[in-house]
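Changelog note: in this version the structure field was regenerated for every chain. One regenerated record is shown below for reference.
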Amino acid sequence: MFEVLMYDGGVYRSEELFELIEDVGGVIIQKTRSSQMLTVTMSIPEEDKEVISEFCREIGGEIRSVPLAGTEIAVVGPTLGRHHMPHPICDIAEHLRRRGAITVVMGLARGRGKLTSQISLEEKMIIDEYDAAIFSLGNFKSCIEAKTDLFSDIRIPTVLVSGPTPEGIDDKCDAIVSGVGRKASRMRSTPEREKLDEIGDKVEKVLNDKKRLLDEDPLFIHPAEIKQLLEEYEPVSMCLRPAPVVLHLDGLRVKIGYDEHREAIENMEIYGRRIGDICRLSPSKINDSSIIMRIKTRSEVRQEDERKAGG
């Protein structure tokens, strides 16, 4: 398995660091330079972590783990109204960002009410574009238990966050964290911050389970390698939206229009192969605002190669 680390230090001997990352078979996810300071997010094999850590200490930098880097997570509330979108949802999203994830906050169109709450097929398809989803419900046990339809059909890993502990819905989601209901103030106290840590740990666990499944049949190419190629594409490099290319565990989100740029991206080449042959491209369900790229596994690419050779 790969582990994501963040280096924080000076630019001194940074080229040697980049070469070392490449030598151990890792990839650079993101580089940020400010004057003489440098931040590097990298994905490296677990067995080479000590080698990288020792070198970073040698050149005077700090290294820390950011287990959720390279993921995009949706934090979902029943509605965008002030009754359902209080401070805890924003605090959860911010806490996950500090662990390296890209997060978005969503509200359902008709999530209000114990008996009338609904989720549309389009909303489910939007949520399924992310690596994981956190559903934050309220303070009433019977209401939470009645709203399982909001997340029971979601295909990505889901974590339920609520005030009381619901019963009989363990099979509807991948993890449950209780003790975080609606409140009108920030989560600042020590017990509240411990709850944020618990949520982060649960999300990390369910995503690690997803990573292990991917390791059984690895992706043909690491998403960060495609990200580096796409960043040289002018419409991406000129894009003014925050994080124009977002990494997912099994692909990427590219924040440019699908209809206009699909063909150009499919015809790009990496390691002698067309992007269109090793990735599935589809438009985002959010108003065609992005391109969702799912990388094929090695076995899928091999089967397609055999089929073409036989045909």
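Spot check on this record: The chain has a mean pLDDT of 88. DSSP finds eleven helices and 15 strands in the chain.
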